[in-house]
Amino acid sequence: MFPPQFGYRRAESADEAIALLAEFSDRDVRLLAGGHGLLPDLKAGREAPDVLVDVGGVDDLRYVDAGSGAVAVGALTTYADAVESGPLWSRATAFAEAVSHVGDVQIRNRGTVGGNLAQADPSADPPAAALVSEATLVARGSDGRREIDAADFFGGDGETALRDGELLTEIRLPDAGGEDAGDETAGGAYVKKTHPASGYALVGVAAVVAVEGGSVTDARVAVNGVTDPPRRLAPVEAALEGESADAESVATAAGRADEGVDAAAAVSDSYASGAYRVDVLPVHVRRALETALDRATGAAATPAGPPHRSAVADGGDRR
């Protein structure tokens, strides 16, 4: 199917992209980055914008900057470039691991971290990791610059906190999942139940766990693929914080994963029913917490980079 006719403008810088969004503020405008979400929607007729603003050549938003206290990722950084960043793995492990699960080689070479977050697909891998990383998303528009907490960014049904005319420019990730803070150590992880054909997450769980003196001092757990929008699992976090950093505590906390998650309202499609997703959620919460805890305590090493996977067998989200 051919998409309806639309206008096309190409931006060479973030400032030019913002100016184009302002110029066409009275039109239906879409931003084109990697295009793996937008182009299929255009072809299927699910999207029919008046104008496409192509930001694929905006190189000033492609970077991973390991600054003091946080790692900043430019919104147009490709998945491939992001997961090759050692500081991202050591300082924001859950987020790096989630990004490494996206797509095959071709998708990772073209798709962008910011595009994934802005698309806000409930089955995408990075959003849950952004939540447990307590990321800050930076947006710029003609009215200036805004910082948005990840907890406030995802609105469900593909909606985000971005306003008309705004461009997502940066994702800032505070140190976690591998960094020491005094006697406290932290570990992060992302695990998923993958649909075998599409690579989408039927269930994806991101976790960050901090340990001091044999006890869990902080636990953050979020899920994607089950709820729309992705969300933190507060009952799991509350059940683990203050408890011993051991397998029994993890199992008890993971057993509360489905509390407050309504199977009737869960994501349900041709890939899997909502009831199935909720049913397998506790297992994947336990696996994510076990991995994060092992990395926090030193029982397992924090990865220094992405695993070596084939383009066919990597089991990633095929966007």
Automatic annotation (TrEMBL):
It holds the Pfam family FAD_binding_5. The keyword Flavoprotein applies. Gene3D superfamilies: 3.30.465.10, CO dehydrogenase flavoprotein, C-terminal domain, Uridine Diphospho-n-acetylenolpyruvylglucosamine Reductase, domain 2. Signal peptide: none annotated. One of its GO terms (molecular function) is oxidoreductase activity. Residues 188-292 form the CO dehydrogenase flavoprotein C-terminal domain. InterPro entries: CO_DH_flav_C, CO_DH_flav_C_dom_sf, Diverse_Substr_Oxidored, FAD-bd_PCMH-like_sf, FAD-bd_PCMH_sub1, FAD-bd_PCMH_sub2, Mopterin_DH_FAD-bd. Keywords: FAD, Flavoprotein, Oxidoreductase. SUPFAM superfamilies: CO dehydrogenase flavoprotein C-terminal domain-like, FAD-binding/transporter-associated domain-like. Residues 295-319 are annotated as: Disordered. It comes from the Archaea. This is Carbon monoxide dehydrogenase. It comes from Halogeometricum pallidum JCM 14848.
